[in-house]
Amino acid sequence: MDDVLRPLIVVGGSVVLTLLLGWATDRLLRKADERHHETPLWGLLRRARIPYQLLLCAVLLRASYDETRLLTSHDVAVGRVLTLVLIGSAAWLTIRIAAAVVETSYTRYASNHRERDPARVRRVRTQVTLIRRVVSAVVGVVAVAAMLLTFPAMRAAGASLLASAGILGIVAGVAAQSTLSNMFAGLQIAFGDMVRIGDTVVVDGEWGTVEEITLTFLTVRTWDERRITMPVSYFTSKPFENWSRGTPQMTGTVFWHVDHSAPLDAMREKLRDILRECPEWDGRACNLTVTDSTPSTLEVRALVTAKDADDIWTVRVTVRERMMRFLADEHPYALPRVNTADAVPPPRDGREGAPADALPAARRAHTHPARHPR
């Protein structure tokens, strides 16, 4: 009878005590979370209750298993299994606690600086993400190493492994050269402020937003919702455009090709009217100038500004569309035309012009509208 009750008491008591301690800890964290809404720390720590209870149970069973006198012929194997569970749950709990602390620090920093310095917030977010991944990787490697050292055979092989560490290091370095370069490039990006999560970039002719940065690759979400995955070493070895570096404010241009008789003053006034009605325009700059001329057209450029890359795109397409509509409706002669006859020189008698029917038919100027280029 004692052989049956003893294991039940030890094992059952360990499980019940684990559940009670886990429930009490979860209640305390829930009350702390209700009292302190300004920080998400307590709510994030509640996510660690499973590895916490697993660790408690493993500790209690490891400490009291000898009292059960159960499976005495397999004491070493059972003890090793409990030790492995103890190490794994401790690593899992450490990762969860570290993630909660890091996420809380970032949330507090972001809430205080989001309005004043959004670029700095994106930089800290990138660093926090990579730090969390590095911590998880380090804790995982240490946990696996600790598990392996619980086996006597692994400890016995330690001397031979250390003796060949130099050769293995050289071989591993050559084999994992690209992986290691990407890992160091990821750390360089995180702390060098080259590119951050949320930045607007142009890489290989593709415009998009940085969505994810890891130690080995970086994901860019394009405007049409495609994802481009690139090795992080690309951003440390090749030039790329970062439109969010420094300040997110941007200046954009809109070009038109119009006839030489286009009403430039009316176009400038219309540009100001269009921008006043465009909420994405930030009011910093508004300009319209002639930048080039050809035998048949003038190249006109409008200069507009906005607070970021998304808004500057909206401002440009709005200005381009409404200005073309304005010219087509009110000044159709301003659209580019192709001359099909030579220009008629003015008469020598000083008059401003002669009636069209008095001119030879072969010398009348006929014009046709031309398709307006983009």
What does this structure look like?
This protein is of the alpha+beta class. Helices cover 54% and strands 17% of the residues. It has helices at residues 2-35, 41-45, 49-64, 75-113, 118-149, 152-156, 158-163, 165-175, 177-192, 234-237, 264-276, 309-330; strands at 200-203, 206-213, 217-222, 227-231, 241-242, 250-258, 281-293, 298-306, 337-339, 367-369. The strands form three sheets. The chain has a five-stranded antiparallel β-sheet with strand order 4-3-2-1-5. It has a three-stranded antiparallel β-sheet with strand order 6-8-7, with helices on one face. The protein has a two-stranded antiparallel ribbon with strand order 9-10. Helix 1 (2-35) packs antiparallel against helix 3 and helix 11 packs across helix 12. The protein is elongated and about 125 Å long. The relative contact order is 0.06.
Q: Give the strand content.
A: 15-25%
* DSSP summary: helix tally: 12
The first-to-last residue Cα distance is 93 Å
User: Using DSSP, what is the number of strands?
Assistant: 10
Please tell me what the overall shape is.
elongated
Low-confidence stretches: 170-177, 350-374
Average predicted confidence as pLDDT = 76
N to C succession of SSEs: HHHHHHHHHEEEEHEEHEEHEE
How do the strands of the widest beta sheet line up side by side?
4-3-2-1-5
* Whole-angstrom Rg: 36 Å
